[in-house]
Amino acid sequence: MTRVVFVLVPGVHLLDLAGPAQVFSTVGQFGRPYELTYLAEDARVPSAQGLPLLAETEWPELRADDLLVVPGWSGPALRDSPPIGDEMLRRLRAHHAAGGTVASVCAGAEALGRAGLLDGRRCTTHHDVQDELASRHPGAIVVRDVLFTTDDRVVTSAGIASGIDLALHLVAARHGPALAARVAREMVVHTRRNGHEPQSSAMLRHRAHLDDAVHRVQDLIDERFTVPLPLAALASFAGVSARTLTRRFGSATQGLTPLRYQQTLRLERAEHLLGHGATMESAAREVGFEDARMLRRLRGRPAAGGDPRPT
Predict the structure, then answer these.
(1) N or C end of the chain: which has fewer CB within 10 A?
(2) Where is the HTH araC/xylS-type domain positioned along the sequence (predicted)?
(3) What is the mean pLDDT of the chain?
């Protein structure tokens, strides 16, 4: 079972913590359980909202597929952040060096910066402290006005509610966009937030519409994007003609056809696999292509719907 360790510091913002924790807890309802651990240097952790929290103080044994998440905390400036011990910073560095993913919400990026994990990497944080983060960690590539970034297993989000977007992105990357969509619906949150974030999945970018028939077709494509899905079968599933489905799908998704939407999901999954060491041939076959030729062709053309190429 994959473990998610939330690293807490005094003054932690409750939503920075509770949002991602709720996402990973909800994933377990759909057959992908996560073990959630809350860790701090002191067992009693005061929150910014006045609710005291209890945390463990002994670090668990971590594997490469486990996640470390540092939620943000209250404070007017990063320079006034609570003390973050050397052992905590060492653990963050060691987990990343061992192949693990390290994430932060809001001011939590400061902890990653102190651990040296932002040097040469794209990152973001709450808009109030973006300039200070760039000043304090000049080796970091601070990206402004985005919900979250991901760069070489270092994932950072803008703050507060954007921690939910970050967690849904991680679920989509690990388990596919269909499961992320189910989690979002269970939590009654939008599966797409305003703004064009290159790291968000196609599922997140193309769900900001109110066409229920198109949503149902997207659900089916999300779940079965690795197999052939003829337009006639999708139209029958939606209870409309193929021509009507094509028109309504394009209107709802900024000009995509069902096939282009499916190809976008295949491409994003293949990019994820390639980024984790898969060969072009193996990635192509895992996402449903007969060989790597179509994958190479898709990687060479502009991204669907004018959206940024996934990275």
Answers:
(1) N
(2) 215-297
(3) 89
